[in-house]
Design goal:
Elements: H1 2-29, H2 36-47, E1 55-56, H3 66-76, H4 88-99, H5 110-119, H6 126-142, H7 145-155, E2 157-159, E3 162-163, H8 165-173, H9 182-190, H10 205-218, H11 223-229
Parallel strand pairs: 1-3
Antiparallel strand pairs: 2-3
Helix pairs in contact: 1-6, 3-9, 3-10, 5-6, 5-7, 9-10
C-alpha cells in the first residue's frame, strides 16, 4: 500500500515537473493568451450579473515604450536587471515592516510577479509562495530578462479589467504603448499596487506623489547598459 502511494506521488510530481517546465518553455516563444487573474475577474463579473469585459492586446517588447519599462523597474523592482529572480534585501525589509505591524508589503520582484500572474492564482499562502518561487527560478533560467519584462508588461492588471501595456495605454491615454511619455509611463506604474483604487489620469495627490518619485528614479534605470553587457 505504501509502495502504491509512493508510486502515485512520484508520478504526480513527475507530471507536475514535466507540465510546468513545458509551459515555461512554451511561453518563452508564444504570447500568453490569458492569465488566471483574467479568468477570476471574468467569473466575478458573471457572478455579479455584469457583462464579462476584458481589454488585453499583446504587443512585442519593441512596441512598448522604454519609458514604461523604466517606470515599472523604478516603481516595482529597482534591481530587476541584475538580480536572479529574488531581491533578498527587499524581502528582509518587507518582513521587518510587517513584523512591526506596518502596512503589509510583499517585496516581490518583477520576476516573482510574472511567475504569479502567468502560472498561479491570487492570494496569500505558503503553498502558493512556494510555487511562486519555483516558477520564478524556472523563468529566470529559461527566459531572458527581456522576455520576462515582455510577459510582465503584457499580462499585469493596469486598470479595471485592463491587462497589459497596450490596453492600458489606450484606456488611460488613448494612444499606443510605443508612444508613452515619461509622465504617462510613470502614471501607469504609479497605480500598479492597486489599479482598481488608483487612476493614472486625474489622479489623487498620493498617486501624483508616487508618479513624481518614479520619474526621478527612472533616470537611474539604464536599459542600454544591460543589453550591451549581453
Amino acid at each position: 500500500m505504501f509502495r502504491k502511494i509512493f508510486r502515485f506521488l512520484f508520478k504526480l510530481c513527475l507530471w507536475f515537473i514535466v507540465l510546468s517546465v513545458g509551459s515555461v518553455v512554451l511561453f518563452r516563444f508564444v504570447p500568453v493568451p490569458f492569465t488566471p487573474l483574467m479568468m477570476t475577474r471574468a467569473l466575478e463579473q458573471k457572478f455579479d450579473g455584469k457583462e464579462m469585459t476584458s481589454s488585453h492586446d499583446w504587443v512585442p517588447l519593441e512596441e512598448i515604450s522604454p519609458n514604461l519599462q523604466k517606470a515599472v523597474i523604478a516603481s516595482e523592482d529597482d534591481r530587476f536587471l541584475t538580480h536572479h529572480g529574488f531581491n533578498f534585501e527587499a524581502m528582509q525589509k518587507a518582513y521587518a515592516n510587517n513584523e512591526k505591524g506596518k502596512k503589509l508589503k510583499g517585496g516581490s520582484t518583477i520576476s516573482q510577479q510574472t511567475a504569479k500572474n502567468v502560472f498561479l492564482w491570487q492570494g496569500r499562502s505558503y503553498v502558493r509562495k512556494g510555487l511562486e518561487a519555483y516558477f520564478t527560478v524556472l523563468i529566470e533560467l529559461l527566459w531572458s530578462k527581456e522576455r520576462i519584462m515582455e510577459v510582465y508588461l503584457n499580462s499585469i492588471e493596469m486598470g479595471p479589467y485592463v491587462y497589459g501595456a497596450q490596453a492600458a495605454s489606450h484606456h488611460w491615454y488613448h494612444k499606443d504603448a510605443s508612444r508613452l511619455t515619461k509622465n504617462e509611463a510613470a502614471g501607469i506604474a504609479a497605480i500598479l499596487p492597486n489599479p482598481y483604487k488608483f487612476r493614472a489620469t486625474r489622479s489623487s495627490g498620493y498617486t501624483e506623489r508616487r508618479k513624481g518619485r518614479i520619474i526621478k528614479l527612472m533616470r537611474y534605470v539604464d536599459l542600454d547598459a544591460h543589453r550591451n553587457e549581453k
